[in-house]
Amino acid sequence: MERQIVMQNQMRERQMAMQVAWSREFLKYYGTFFTLATVGLTVGAIKRRKPFLLAPIIPLGFIMAYQVDSAYGTLIYRVRGEAESIMTSDHDRLDLPHGTPTFESIEKARRARSSLASFLEK
C-alpha cells in the first residue's frame, strides 16, 4: 500500500512538472506572437493615425499575463490553496454520485460485464 502511495505521488509530481514545462514552452511561442502583434498594431496605429488598432493588445495582454503567471508565477500555489479551501469548507461539492465505490459495487459491475461479454460471445 505504501509503495502504491509513493508511486501515485511520483506520477502526480511528474504530471505537474509536465504541465509547468508545457506552460513555459507555450509561453515562448505566445510571447513571440504577442510581441510581433503588439509591434505591428502599434506601428499600424501610428502610421494610419487610428488608435482603435491598439484595442486587441488589451485582451492579448491579459492572456499574456495569465501565461506568465502560469509558467513562472504563483498561479499553481493559489490554485492549490483554493483546492485546499474547497476540500475543507465545501467538501459536499466533492461527493461522487451514488457515493464512494465499494468492493461490492465494483464486483457487481465486473460480474455484469463478464456475463454480458459471455452472452455476446455466444
From TrEMBL:
What PANTHER family does the annotation carry?
A: PLASMINOGEN RECEPTOR (KT)
Task: Respond yes or no to whether keyword Cytoplasm is given for this record.
Answer: no
Q: List residues traversing the bilayer.
A: 26-46, 52-77
Give a Gene Ontology cellular component term annotated to this protein: plasma membrane
| Protein name per Swiss-Prot or TrEMBL | Plasminogen receptor (KT)
Q: Which UniProt keywords apply?
A: Membrane, Receptor, Transmembrane, Transmembrane helix
A single GO BP term for this record reads: positive regulation of plasminogen activation
Which InterPro entries does this chain map to?
Plg-R(KT)
User: Pfam families, alphabetically?
Assistant: DUF2368
Q: Which organism is it from?
A: Dissostichus eleginoides
